Amino acid sequence: MVPPDHYPLSSLRETLSQHTGLPPHSFKLVHSGAVMKDDNAPITAYGIRPGSVVALVGGDSVPPRSPYTHAPAPAPTTTAHPPAPAPAPASNHSPVNSSMPPPPAPTQPITPSESPAPVNSQEAATITKIQSEWNSFRSKLLPEVQSFLQVLAAPRQERPSPEELKQNHKKFAELLLQALLKFDAFQPEGEWSKAREVRKGAVKEVQSVLDKLDGMWEEAKVSGR
Questions:
Q1: Residue 156: closest CA among 219, 114, 62, 103
Q2: Which residue stretches of 69-161 are H helix?
Q3: 142, 179 in Cβ contact below 8 A?
Q4: What does the alpha-carbon distance between residue 156 and residue 154 come to, in Å, rounded to a whole number?
Q5: Which of 39, 72, 79, 132 is an S-S bond match for 10, by CB 3.0 to 4.6 Å?
Q6: What's a Gene Ontology MF term here (predicted)?
Q7: Is 22 helix (H, G, I), strand (E, B) or coil?
Q8: Could you tell me which of 200, 195, 163, 197 has the C-alpha nearest to residue 180?
Q9: Residues 25, 37: Cα–Cα separation, whole Å
Q10: CA separation for the pair 68, 50 (Å, rounded)
Q11: Residue 35, number of CB atoms within 10 A of its CB
């Protein structure tokens, strides 16, 4: 079923949230190589038509870990002291002090430190795949995007034609989104904290490059440098 033309992007986001169980703002919606950012705009503003494909990127939520709890320390016990004896009659012997010394202060229990879970072979294999994809991004796509960013930063008279710039921007935006989708395809198990950390770093780096590309593209169009 195709939503009506006036259907806002926010409603589409809510519908996807209900179907996936993800928070509405934990993922990005991508269509034709561009991230749809304005939730108040109708879907027709993004060119969505019957048969269009909308990609959902992100939505990685780590379940909270329960804090390490300790059993309460037992209440310190006290030793009752016998009442002081009545004064003895004077004698040639020194009086004996029958009072007992106070008990030592109770010691606090030693809290065991929580050691990180070891990385098993399956998690290690997933980390290797993520790092391999990350290295490929850095050695191939990233240098090309950086070169294009230098072109956008150049004075207007030194840049290619607007049509060529537009095509290159669209090409690199789509390639960066494809890179995000590749990392999104890795789904570490719930206890694979190290794999999640590596995947999160890769997604964050690619997303920052995509944001910079879109930002410089908009700036170049507005300023006309």
A1: 219
A2: 121-136, 142-153
A3: no
A4: 6
A5: 39
A6: adenyl-nucleotide exchange factor activity
A7: coil
A8: 200
A9: 11
A10: 51
A11: 19
Give the Cα separation of 181 and 186 in Å (integer): 9
d(CA 53, CA 30) in angstroms, rounded, equals 9
Per-residue tokens: 51: 């048969």
Measure the CA–CA gap between 56 and 27, rounded to whole angstroms: 6
Which residues are CB-neighbours of 84 under 8 A, at least 6 positions away? 98, 99
* Token digits of residue 93: 């012997």
Residue keyed to tokens 């169009």: 221
**Separation between Cα atoms, residue 176 and residue 141, nearest integer Å:** 8
pLDDT one-digit tens code per residue, 107-153: 444 344 444 556 788 999 999 999 999 999 999 999 999 999 999 99
The CB-based long-range contact list for 87-92 (8 Å cut-off, 24+ gap) reads none
Closest listed residue to residue 61, CA positions, set 204, 212, 200? 200
In the numeric block, the tokens 């229990």 are attached to 109
List of domains in the chain: 9-58 (3.10.20.90), 119-224 (1.20.58.120)
